[in-house]
Amino acid sequence: MRRYITLAFAAATLLMAQAKGAITFEKTNADFGTVKANGGTVTMTFPFTNTGDEAVGIVTVTNGGCGCTKPQFPQKPVRPGEKGIITITFNPATFRGEVKRNVKVQTSAERKRTQLTFSGVVVP
User: Are the C-beta atoms of residues 48 and 24 closer than 8 Å to each other?
Assistant: First the structure.
């Protein structure tokens, strides 16, 4: 009997280790084109799907190191099969020329962060 309990526990542990949430982004790069510095903010969206077996929470999305970038993301965990969107709003007011910035997404499913990049050209 003890042997069966040990085997059942080992099997349950193995199954739990295999079940995992996973976020899959439709794209990880966005080009906002050419914008005027005084033309207001630019918004990029990064749609994703939870392709795993468990709910996944977005823990953090960095702002790219400055106040010019404002991320918005789902505050509730995304269940398996559900879709979500990370929205990045960029203010080009203090930039000129080519711009390439990134934000990093930390989820509850992985230690490794996913990098989302956006780029474009800011003209006076």
Answer: yes
The distance between the two most distant Cα atoms of the chain, rounded to a whole number of Å, is 78
User: pLDDT confidence of 66, banded at 50, 70, 90?
Assistant: confident
In angstroms, the CA 51 to CA 76 distance is 16
How far apart, in Å, do the first and last CA atoms of the chain sit? Answer: 78
pTM: 0.80
Please write down the HEC assignment for all residues of the chain: CHHHHHHHHHHHHHHHHHCCCCEEECCCEEEEEEEECCCCCEEEEEEEEECCCCCECEEEECCCCCCCEEEECCCCCECCCCEEEEEEEECCCCCCEEEEEEEEEEECCCCCCEEEEEEEEEEC
Give the tens place of pLDDT for each residue, 15-57.
444 558 899 999 999 999 999 999 999 999 999 999 999 999 9
